[in-house]
Design brief:
Elements (H helix, E strand, L loop, with lengths): L2 H31 L5 H20 L2 H19 L5 H37 L1
Protein name: Protein translocase subunit SecE
Family: Belongs to the SecE/SEC61-gamma family.
GO molecular function: protein transmembrane transporter activity
Length: 122
C-alpha cells in the first residue's frame, strides 16, 4: 500500500470513529431524552444503534485487527485442554486445605504476637 492510500484510509478511519462516537453519544442522550417511553423500545433502539456503531467500527483498520484477534482467540480457545471433573475437585480441595492451614497459622501467630505485646505493655 502506498503512502497516499494509507493517509486516505487513516483520514476515513478518523471519520468513521467520529461517526461511532456520535452514534454512542446519540444513544446515551436519546435514552435519557426518551426516558418516559417504555423500556422495551429504548432497549431495542439502543441495540440497533450499538449494532450500527459496531459495524462501522469494524470497517476501520483497528476494527479489522480486533476482528482478526477475536477469530484467532476463538481458534486458540478450542485448543485448550480443560481439566476433568476429578482434577477440578482435587485441585479445589487442595486450595481449600492450604487456605485453612494458612488461616490457622496466621491466627496462631497473631494470637502469639498479641499475647507478647500485652505482656510487654502490661
Amino acid at each position: 500500500m502506498n503512502v497516499k492510500a494509507e493517509a486516505k484510509d487513516s483520514r476515513f478511519d478518523m471519520l468513521k470513529w467520529l461517526l461511532v462516537a456520535a452514534l454512542v453519544i446519540t444513544g446515551v442522550v436519546g435514552n435519557q431524552y426518551f426516558s418516559a417511553e417504555p423500556i422495551l423500545y429504548r432497549v431495542l433502539a439502543l441495540l440497533v444503534v450499538a449494532a450500527l456503531a459496531g459495524v462501522i467500527a469494524l470497517q476501520t483498520s483497528k476494527g479489522k485487527a480486533f476482528w482478526v484477534l477475536a477469530k484467532e482467540a476463538r481458534v486458540e480457545i478450542r485448543k485448550v485442554v480443560w481439566p476433568t471433573r476429578q482434577e477440578t475437585t482435587q485441585t479445589t480441595l487442595i486450595v481449600v486445605a492450604v487456605v485453612l492451614v494458612m488461616a490457622l497459622l496466621l491466627w496462631g501467630l497473631d494470637s502469639l504476637l498479641g499475647w507478647l505485646v500485652s505482656l510487654i505493655v502490661g
